[in-house]
Specification:
The complex is a heterodimer of chains A (297) and B (511).
Chain A (H helix, E strand, L loop, with lengths): L1 H20 L1 H21 L4 E2 L1 H4 L1 E6 L6 H9 L6 E6 L6 E8 L3 H12 L8 E6 L1 H30 L2 H24 L3 E2 L1 H27 L5 H30 L4 H36 L1
Parallel strand pairs in A: 1-6
Antiparallel strand pairs in A: 2-4, 2-5, 3-4
Helix pairs in contact in A: 2-7, 6-7, 6-8, 7-8, 7-10, 8-9, 8-10, 9-10
Chain B lengths: L5 H18 E2 L2 E2 L6 E6 L4 H4 L7 E5 L2 E2 L3 H11 L6 E7 L3 E6 L5 E5 L6 E2 L1 H4 L1 E8 L6 H17 L5 E7 L5 E8 L6 H6 L4 E5 L2 E5 L5 E4 L7 E8 L5 E11 L1 H12 L15 E5 L2 E6 L12 E10 L2 H21 L6 E9 L1 H30 L2 H24 L3 E2 L1 H25 L8 H23 L11 H30 L1
Helix pairs in contact in B: 1-10, 1-13, 5-8, 9-10, 9-11, 10-11, 10-13, 11-12, 11-13, 12-13
């Protein structure tokens, strides 16, 4: 009973202020734009990129006897823009491998490492991934184009679903705000994006849109109940959906974090995105839709 | 018991078919197989001639049961290498191979995989190279030629389990993608990158070049016309071994040889030979100079012996090196050269070691994610039965995606795994919509209508996700295709097969 009591309290409050609430998402969008603009002027790009998008070499050494700090010191001045990461077994905590990423090409990196290790790197004791800079530059460009096309495709389908500018516009705007805010946060955190990172932005489109579709569908296509009842019904369903996704992603993140930087980046971005999605669906999209429905009355 | 209904039957049938597709291989059910699997057989080797084929399952050697790779190693190392040819009986699943040789068969083996699922390079290990022409845009035809020449070369080098394919990316750039499963061949970079321009010159005149225009055939794997001739130790302690093999020239090349040698005088100090040698160049580097016998002067000869040498610190090394050199020359003479230089734009060699651990973690992550999401559902709806059905549905979605992947022989890589995770995510979301709608007691519409309403939402979300994935089929030269494919399979299976069945089950539980 307590729940329904607070619901009525919230409803009246919401009725009064839902338009004002829209200021928050709009100012966040404006802030993100300004931030990304500043970021662009500083870095000449809208995100920091790792070697999968700039070109370079990634070496995984399957050797648990290496003195990591010593090796790191040794490589620091010899490899260009190096990052150094140790990965360990989840269950035993034992060190299993070292991952070195650098902009230096594969042949040179291999030579330098062999000089330190005093043994030959083969496919039995190591993995090597090299991407040329021309390829990764075109990779990056194409992934951004893919993201854009995906977004356009999604917008078309959303518009076909609702055949009405305001509700479809609200869904599309929420999805856009999700991606924009996530990207700004990723930059603030200083995360270097990989190709997988850009894919997870694309995954966000899917995750973001389904709660918005649920909301719009319940609000515009159902005839039973008041607007607020419909919103709160959709909210209960939608928030359960997002929470289960969020929990699933969080758990996956903790499992793979020590092991795969590719997957852990995907999960990090999804976590950030899903949090913004809750915000954008239940504040941005709800307010726009409520406004639209109230005006139509 | 009530009748199950079409939707549930369909889901059950597809699920069973998927399980079969995962565990059935050409040799029967994978879980019941014993022995070791032959993953590759060196072409034209003794092993090949005596009947070994890729895909054979060896179950015993000389009557000793073989259950794993170390058994195989143990019994073959006991007998080979030997002084003289010895007989070994290999029993495979369907036949018996009587093997006669002084060295172990040239085959690679592995344990029998537990499923017929194929994992991608980033999980199973292997190497991948993406190649493009230097400073040149290749046409579709040129890239196909490049693919066939490269395939030939890699085959001649004795690499098996290779896949060479032309790919085009979103902006129309063409690449050649080479994927080699398992161990990475040494010197892969050179093998791929070498343009392989072979020229045989006398003075400044080219007599013949590699490729089928000038070369009718090349003798290989036949000791009467292609062999290691002799080995010597130099004063430096290094060993030198020379090889020789025959090449049969085309009419045109043979006539050219005749007209050029016609004009050349005999060597003054060594009158058995002509004064100018036949110089062999590989990628513009002189590899050998052959003296031309005086009897060949002005003669139209189609058979020419090509020789060269290999070096090494021990005699064995030198023999091996000479064999490699011979192989390389033979390959280039057969396949001809590429009319442009190649550039490797991506080269990955991935150790198979980490992969196994990786698969374990991903499985663990998947199960943990599924269970924790289910806990949220139980807390929210306080319905244990429905939540269990939910896990079951998500689980069968994963099984069906894997079944389809195994059916279309899709290599599951990291991107595909991310796609499967995305499927679980949207699957859970959809099921929550169905569950929520079905227990919604406030409306006047009946249960069937409410589930129908749920599907209106689900289909809308499905359409948006499906179209948003399409660009990934081509972006990034298709290396991320796995994500798009598994996700599209997953969500399609979900909305058309498993989630309707879930809706039906929930309806029955509610009624």
């Amino acid at each position: 009973m307590e729940e329904s009591h607070s619901e009525t309290q919230k409803k009246s409050w919401h009725d009064k202020y839902y338009k004002v609430l829209l200021i928050i998402p709009f100012s966040l969008v404006v802030f993100s734009f300004i931030y990304l603009g500043l970021f662009y002027s500083q870095h000449n790009d809208i995100m920091l990129k790792d070697i999968s998008l700039t070109g370079g070499t990634s070496v995984t050494l399957n050797d648990n006897l290496i003195d990591a700090t010593d090796l790191e010191d040794f490589l620091q001045n010899r490899l260009e823009e190096m990052t150094f990461k140790e990965i360990s077994d989840l269950t035993t905590g034992e060190k299993v491998a070292i991952i070195i990423e650098t902009k230096t090409d594969a042949e040179t990196t291999k030579k330098i490492l062999e000089e330190y290790l005093n043994y030959e790197l083969t496919d039995e004791n190591s993995s090597m991934e090299f991407t040329g800079s021309s390829l990764s530059t075109s990779f990056y460009k194409q992934l951004l184009i893919a993201l854009l096309i995906s977004f356009v495709f999604m917008s078309i389908v959303v518009f076909l679903l609702f055949k009405n500018a305001v509700p479809s516009g609200a869904v599309i705007f929420s999805a856009f705000a999700d991606i924009l805010m996530t990207l700004a946060t990723v930059n603030i955190l200083g995360i270097k994006m990989s190709s997988a990172g850009i894919i997870s932005l694309l995954m966000l489109i899917g995750y973001s849109v389904d709660t918005d579709i649920l909301l719009t569908n319940r609000l515009l296509r159902r005839h039973e109940g008041t607007v607020n009842e419909k919103i709160s019904g959709a909210f209960k369903t939608g928030i359960t959906m997002t929470l289960t996704s969020l929990i699933a992603v969080l758990v996956s993140f903790f499992v793979v974090n020590s092991f795969s930087s590719v997957l852990s980046q995907i999960f990090t971005i999804l976590i950030i995105g899903l949090i913004f999605d809750m915000f954008n669906t239940w504040i941005t999209n709800v307010s726009i839709l409520k406004w639209y429905v109230e005006r139509k009355k | 018991m009530k009748k199950l209904g079409f939707k549930i039957w369909l889901a059950i049938i597809v699920l069973i078919a998927s399980i079969l597709s995962i565990f059935l291989s050409s040799n029967g059910l994978t879980v019941f197989q014993k022995g070791v699997l032959v993953t590759s057989v060196e072409q034209n080797s003794t092993a090949y001639e005596q009947g070994f084929r890729q895909g054979d399952i060896i179950t015993s050697i000389d009557g000793n049961l073989i259950t794993n790779v170390s058994d195989f190693a143990k019994y073959t190392q006991e007998k080979y290498p030997s002084e003289s040819e010895v007989k070994t009986t290999f029993k495979t699943k369907y036949s018996e191979i009587i093997f006669f040789s002084d060295s172990a068969p040239d085959i690679t083996i592995s344990k029998i995989p537990k499923t017929s699922l194929k994992t991608g390079l980033d999980l199973a290990g292997g190497s991948r190279a993406m190649v493009k022409a230097q400073d040149k845009e290749l046409s579709a035809e040129e890239i196909n030629d490049l693919v066939s020449i490269t395939t030939n070369r890699l085959n001649v080098y004795g690499l098996s389990d290779i896949k060479v394919t032309p790919i085009t990316d979103l902006s129309g750039n063409r690449f050649m993608l080479i994927e080699i499963a398992g161990a990475t061949p040494k010197d892969l970079r050179n093998t791929i990158e070498s343009q392989g321009k072979f020229e045989a010159k006398i003075g400044n005149e080219t007599v013949f070049i590699g490729g089928d225009k000038d070369i009718a055939s090349v003798c290989r794997n036949d000791a009467t016309c292609a062999r290691i001739e002799s080995c010597q130790q130099a004063s430096s302690g290094e060993f030198y071994c020379t090889f020789i093999f025959s090449v049969y020239l085309s009419e045109g090349a043979a006539e050219k040889h005749a007209s050029i040698t016609e004009k050349i005088d005999l060597n003054v100090s060594n009158p058995e030979y002509l004064s100018e040698p036949l110089d062999l160049y590989l990628d513009d580097v002189l590899v050998d100079s052959l003296l031309i016998n005086k009897n060949l002067k002005g003669q139209v000869t189609t058979q020419i012996a090509i020789s060269g040498s290999g070096t090494g610190e021990t005699q064995d090394d030198a023999i091996k090196n000479a064999q490699e050199q011979m192989h390389k020359l033979q390959t280039i003479l057969i396949t001809g050269s590429l009319p442009y230089k190649l550039e490797i734009v991506k080269l990955d060699t991935i150790s198979p070691l980490l992969g196994e651990n990786f698969t374990k973690y991903i499985l663990f992550a998947g199960i943990a994610a599924l269970l924790s999401a289910a806990v949220i559902v139980v807390i929210r709806y306080k319905k244990v039965k429905q939540s269990l059905v939910m896990i079951l549905t998500s689980f069968s979605e994963i099984v069906i995606v894997l079944g389809v992947a195994s059916l279309i022989k899709w290599n599951l890589d990291l991107a595909s795994i991310a796609g499967i995770l995305a499927t679980i995510g949207t699957g859970f979301d959809d099921q929550i919509v169905i569950l929520d709608e079905s227990i919604n007691k406030k409306t006047t519409s009946n249960l069937k209508e409410r589930i129908k309403k749920a599907f209106a939402i689900i289909m809308g979300a499905y359409a948006t996700v499906a179209v948003s994935l399409l660009p990934l089929m081509w972006a990034g030269a298709g290396l991320l295709k796995g994500f798009a494919i598994t996700t599209i399979i997953g969500i399609s299976v979900g909305v058309f097969i498993t989630r309707p069945a879930f809706g039906e089950l929930v309806r029955r539980i509610e009624e």
